[in-house]
Design goal:
about 220 residues, Dna Topoisomerase Vi A Subunit, Chain: A, domain 2, 4-stranded antiparallel beta sheet, about 35% helix
């Protein structure tokens, strides 16, 4: 019954479309990310745009999952407050980025939908050939909720970049064990002091050039 309810909710989602060049540039400025990273997500169908909560938004989406953020950077209303990101009603999904899993032998596994764009930005800034990315939609994401994904990661080197908080580190330990069980070759890398995620590293890449190089070694 809950699955049926979520399916009905998804039917009410707004129409999504691919971003224009101007919208790609706007997201690039807003997130301090290389435009090529935004284009990569858009080309894979993971980044769309549309109107939601009466505002122009960019949508990170794959399959039955979608998360909206306003193009002007302002927050969206949620229960008991506001938030920069909001999952659309009926959204279901533990990981996004399967559409980016080409023949690359190395995969970054990051936390958070916006982490997908930040990881793509890191790859672009480091010109890291042979790397791609998947992102957990939250620290609570587990691979039993994405049963087809482990088989696609089998035989690949999966580098986990956990958020620097208790939930992120706990998730990383769980993902590491799951990847080993799936036949992948996982490891994890610690973020520099003062960085909770890849956001500040990408936005200040010259300062973190040494870390960016080590991230893809």
């Amino acid at each position: 019954m809950d699955d049926e309810k979520k399916a009905r909710q998804r039917e009410s989602w707004p129409t999504f479309r691919g971003p224009t060049l101007a919208e790609i540039e706007a997201i690039s400025r807003l997130r301090h990310l290389p435009g090529s990273a935004i284009r990569s997500a858009a080309d894979a169908g993971l980044l769309r745009v549309g109107y939601y909560e009466r505002a122009a938004c960019y949508i990170l989406t794959e399959g039955t999952f979608a998360q909206a953020r306003r193009l002007d950077g302002l927050p969206l209303p949620i229960k008991d407050g506001v938030s920069k990101a909001k999952n659309l009603p009926g959204a279901v999904g533990a990981f996004i980025g399967a559409g980016l899993l080409d023949e690359s032998s190395n995969v970054l596994l990051v936390e958070g939908c916006i982490g997908l764009l930040e990881a793509l930005g890191s790859i672009a800034l480091a010109d890291a050939q042979g790397w791609t990315v998947i992102a957990a939609t939250s620290a609570s994401s587990r691979f039993h909720r994405a049963p087809d994904l482990p088989a696609r990661l089998k035989g690949r080197h999966v580098r986990i970049v956990p958020d620097a908080d208790e939930a992120g580190l706990e998730a990383a330990a769980t993902w590491l064990a799951a990847m080993e069980h799936a036949g992948a070759f996982p490891d994890a890398i610690e973020l520099p002091p003062g960085c909770k995620d890849l956001g500040p590293i990408v936005s200040n890449s010259l300062h973190y050039q040494t870390f960016l190089s080590s991230l893809f070694q």
